[in-house]
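It is worth pausing here to work through a concrete case rather than discussing structure prediction in the abstract. The textbook approach is simple: state the sequence, then state the predicted structure, then interpret. We follow exactly that order.
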Amino acid sequence: MPPESDQIKEGLSPALAKSFLLYSELHKFEGEEENDSAITSAVWYEKLRAAVEYQETHLMFKNAVARIIRRSLLISVKIKKEKIYNDLVNELIWANYITPKTIDESKSKKVNYILDKYLTIIRRANSINKSNSEIIRYFSGICACEIEEEIFDKRAENQYLDFVFLAIKDNYKNNIKHINDQDHIVQLKLAIYTNIFKPDVSYLSYWSLKLTHTNWLVIDIDDCKNLTKSIDPFMASFERHLSHPLRSRYLILVRNMVSPFSVIRTHLLLNNVSKKWAEDNPILLENNLCQSYESLRMQSNAKIWRGIWRALIFLLMTKTVLAFIIEIPVDRAIHGNILWLPLIANITFPPFLMFLSGITIPKIPQKNSKLMKEAFFEIINTGRLTNEKALVIEKKKRTKTFNFFNYLLAIFSLLVLILVVFFLLRLKFNVVSIVLFFLFVSAVSFLSFRIRVNSKELLIKRKSQDSITTLVEFIFLPFISLGKAMSDSLNRLNPFLLAVDFIIEAPFKTILKILRAWFNFISLKKEEMEY
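Step two, the predicted structure:
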């Protein structure tokens, strides 16, 4: 409900006003630079790569930086920093992530310092828990986050996180027996950051690293050398926030309150709203936010289908290819001919399942618009968003009934898997075909589940699902769990993408470098002949 009139104060809250100011500054330099050095093939390669990796658009730049650094170090860990820097800048320009003017002398020095810092750690780290390649992958990802933060101004995001924290923090109380006050603040901010900004694992680690080691952005290289002597305790010092037992509880409870803030952030990113205008026109601002919400609500269905098409491309590139590479040779080796039914089923059933999932996702109800309008009114006029009652965050007690249902679920999941295997055997599937079927269906089930969850981002109050949807998700729960396990393992090491890095990307980027040098040479010769 909107607050009473005596609660309304004049002007925006200081934290919200500062957010308007910083987001407004981001629009000052839009469209001022053109990149004549971009190479069309490199741009399209990055788009295709994003689809193959099933990565969000806002993570593409960071992932490209991480991939370039990681590829260089896996070829030779002793590679010179200057070469990594030159390759990094050139490839980012070719792919149109930046222009030749983006990195000035000041940013160049800072990016070189960042590379120096992480290369020192990667080359000297001696970990018990991680292999050398895992260390390279882990710190390359974090290094890419810091480089992106240096190249592109992230002050607005940091300020907005602080604003949202101040706006909703009073709705959450911690049970001191389960989590102390300091960790409560960290987990609450982490949940806000995760729900609004949609970071990946590398960004979460980087965020936690900066929070734990406050001098990290200016740390001395000699101090980095000292850290490598005990690299595992160093990583554990900040990774502990990401493995806190109550983290999922915070994520769920915060998720239900941040949708209005996500709409406000989207509005500020798309529109240049000055601090003064917002302070002078609170009613018009509220109306504009409502219009932005309605636009996002109307676009949500298209966004869902974009996610489904990207998921289908992901399946086609990383999963369906396996059916032809593995299944056909195995069929010929064992049976002497191709078993077409299992092959066709493995190729067509997962996309059909994904399509079926897409058409059954419910649209955002109209009544959510009223709740969103009330939330905007309260945020603009008070700088707060209040819940009906304070939410106490504590560990849920696992009763005997809960444990019984847990065992029952495990037994049911096992029975579902056994019945599916039995059914596939009746259809003449061999062991390889069955394994591929489970891979494909598990991947689709998990991706469909993620898309369904993301479709609820704009909801303020999430109602219970209907009985049919609940039953279907219950039946597919074993496959969703398998898909999540596969996704987690592939996030750590994806052999397919690793092969792409060295078999396709490395030669492709080498050819681009040679062609670039050749064209520069021809251009120089032409200039010499002009005089």
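Step three, interpretation. The two ends are 77 Å apart (CA to CA). Residues 282-335 form the longest helix (54 residues).
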